[in-house]
């Protein structure tokens, strides 16, 4: 007679029913050799995950801003936008490698589920990175709590941290013009800043 006993419950499965928030994972870093400024979001939105492209939500202002600053706007194919950012010394990634989140809002991230990306390792491999630009308050919060303490003190002392307003459509507390004015701070850190 076959063994009809069920395997013991895995503690990791506890609470993994309908009420658990889905797990969300970051994309690999979009960083080229000689990167000077690293833009860090929190974790990809549902639209970004569906399209496999960072900042893919049609109302997110990231790509329109990159169009104004680096001629890397949303009208170009994604790979060309990334190439144009790389040519100017701009890389993009996320502070979180993975987390649990229902929907796309940063406020819905389950804090206990946050796992940070290896930003300290990236900084060690890319010594030209002189500035980190954080896209929104949640990215800044995670950076300060989970990443900054792990960065070597000497490297941290050489690193500028730019706290920028979120380009997300959920951030309606600041006008587009004011957001863009703040995002122009990137120009001081990128290569061949012409604007």
* CATH structural fold name: Uracil-DNA Glycosylase, subunit E
Strand content: 15-25%
Helix fraction, binned, reads 25-40%
Q: Give the low-confidence spans.
A: 1-18
How many beta strands in the DSSP annotation? 7
Count of alpha and pi helical runs: 7
Please tag this protein with its features.
Uracil-DNA Glycosylase, subunit E; 195 residues; single chain; alpha/beta; disordered N terminus; three-stranded antiparallel beta sheet
Commentary on this structure:
It is built from seven helices and seven strands, in the order E-E-H-H-H-E-E-E-H-E-H-H-E-H. The protein is 29% helix and 15% strand. It has helices spanning 46-51, 62-70, 78-87, 119-125, 137-147, 153-157, 176-183, and strands at 23-25, 37-41, 90-94, 96-100, 115-116, 131-135, 160-164. Strands 3-2-6-7 form a four-stranded parallel β-sheet. The chain is of the alpha/beta class and 195 residues long. It has a single domain, classed as Uracil-DNA glycosylase-like domain (Uracil-DNA Glycosylase, subunit E, 3-Layer(aba) Sandwich). It starts with 22 loop residues before the first strand and ends in a 12-residue tail after the last helix.
């Amino acid at each position: 007679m076959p063994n009809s006993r069920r395997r013991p419950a895995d503690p990791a499965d506890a609470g993994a029913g309908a009420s658990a928030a889905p797990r969300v994972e970051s994309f690999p870093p979009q960083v080229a050799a000689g990167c000077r400024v690293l833009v860090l979001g929190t974790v990809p939105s549902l639209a970004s995950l569906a399209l496999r492209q960072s900042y893919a939500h049609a109302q997110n202002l990231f790509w329109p801003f990159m169009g104004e600053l680096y001629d890397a706007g949303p009208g170009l194919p994604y790979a060309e936008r990334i190439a144009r950012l790389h040519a100017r010394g701009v890389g993009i990634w996320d502070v979180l490698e993975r987390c649990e989140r229902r929907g796309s809002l940063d406020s819905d991230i389950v804090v206990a589920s946050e796992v940070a990306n290896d930003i300290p390792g990236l900084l060690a491999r890319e010594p030209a990175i002189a500035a980190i630009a954080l896209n929104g308050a949640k990215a800044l919060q995670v950076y300060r709590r989970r990443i900054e303490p792990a960065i070597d003190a000497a490297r941290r002392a050489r690193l500028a941290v730019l706290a920028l307003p979120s380009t997300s459509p959920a951030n309606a507390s600041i006008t587009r013009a004011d957001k863009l004015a703040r995002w122009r701070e990137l120009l001081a850190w990128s290569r061949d800043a012409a604007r």
